[in-house]
Amino acid sequence: MKKHWLPFLLAFVLPLILTYWWWGGFNQASFETAQRGPYHFAYMTQKGDYSKLPEKQQEVLGRLQQQGVVAGTPITLLLNDARTTPKRDWSAQVGYLVDAQARVSEPLALGDVPARQALVVKVKAQLLLAPGKAYAALIDYLDAHHMKFNPPTVELYQDGVLTVEMSL
User: Fold this and answer.
1) Of residues 130 and 34, more confidently modeled
2) Cα(97)–Cα(111) distance, rounded to whole angstroms?
């Protein structure tokens, strides 16, 4: 019986663990309070399920390229609390940082996030894992410090690090 466990572990379990490690699944979130922004960005609105955000991000990138606008860091503003808002009412602004002089046409819009004091959560992980890890850590932090979740949150993903900012 023991002879059958070693091949199983080596063939199935070990690769899963290594993949999870490679994707940053074991990485911990870090926290800081910092002055963040301002941000100027081009975006499209996503209504409903947040699982469609990556598709919308790609659509925005394509439209920016068609309009000759240079896309910077990906940015997403989650406008409501997914824990208390029905999924059909979830709303996000999905886009890219752009130059202050950039002009876009519909269906793109321009938005700004002013400079502000924020609680900043950072997680180094693949984009599929990072949001879940970051928001779970954020909620735990807020509960431990008797703080309230304050949407919108700003997400920036750059160099394999997801940064989530919540205004204080």
Assistant:
1) 34
2) 9
* Token pair belonging to 50: 């947040």
Residue 1's Cβ-count burial label (10 Å; 0-12, 13-18, 19+) is exposed
Whether 123 and 130 have beta carbons less than 8 Å apart is answered as yes
Instruction: Look at 78-82, 114-118, 130-134, 163-167 and tell me which has the smallest mean pLDDT.
Output: 130-134
Is the Cβ–Cβ distance between 38 and 115 less than 8 Å?
Answer: yes
pLDDT tens digits along 7-37: 676 677 766 776 666 666 677 899 999 999 9
Rounded distance, CA 96 to CA 102, Å? Answer: 12
Q: Is the pLDDT of residue 78 over 90?
A: yes
Q: Quick count: other Cβ atoms within 10 Å of Cβ 99?
A: 11
Inter-residue contact 156 to 74 (CB < 8 Å): yes
| Dihedral angle computed from the Cα positions of residues 52, 130, 122 and 168, in that order, rounded to the nearest 10 degrees | 40
Q: Which residue spans within 48-135 are E strands per DSSP?
A: 74-78, 91-97, 109-113, 116-124
C-beta neighbour count of 104 within 10 angstroms: 19
Pair of tokens at residue 25 = 């699944």
